[in-house]
Amino acid sequence: MIDLYYWTTPNGHKITLFLEETGLPYKVIPINIGRGDQFEPEFLKHSPNNKIPAIVDTEPEDGGEPVSVFESGAILVYLAEKTGQFIGETPRQRLDVMQWLFWQMGGLGPMAGQNHHFNAYAPTQIPYAIDRYVKETARLYAVMDKRLGEQPYLAGDYSIADMASYPWVVPHERQQQSLDDFPNLKRWYNAIAERPAVKRAYALAEDIAPPKKDGFSEEEKQVLFGQDASRVQR
Length: 234
Description:
Protein name: Thiol:disulfide oxidoreductase
Number of helices: 10
Organism: Saccharospirillum salsuginis
InterPro entries: Glutathione-S-Trfase_C-like, Glutathione-S-Trfase_C_sf, Glutathione_S-Trfase, Glutathione_S-Trfase_N, GST_C, Thioredoxin-like_sf
Family: Belongs to the GST superfamily.
């Protein structure tokens, strides 16, 4: 059994996509990040960076004590190695998967995240910041588009690299991007959206936290974006 500490963000979706694809039994433990659940001691035992997602594998391969894993990329690698799925069958295929997974973790996720922040959440509109991150998001979309013109998925076959990247493309309109500008990416996006496991994962998200029309409240924004070192040092 996998205990999944989860909220309905792109990084959270990565893990439900994998779990739904593989059929690994799992239990969702919602961590409401707008309410501050991510700062509770029980969660911090598993995720010292106070970010979702995190997992606890209650039945690790070595038969020992339960294993905690935090950081979405590390979780995907752990689960892919545990199941032997979606990580490539040869060393070269695995290398491709890992390159594109790290590309998402170091590029697409952080840059799109800053795009979201300055477009939707920053208390003051800063044109330079918005322009910077909208352009960088477009550049990263173009990198994907070029790659996906060569093969159907980022690493050839559908893999954890695609599962990591797809949830960050779902909010493309919020990122001021049009998929019509990236036809190969659009084809990839539509193909993944039709996968039954993806539909189940996003249906689960809506059950846990239906989308808000008005976004985060001011109190929730303070919890999400108003933290500093003192919160960790308590």
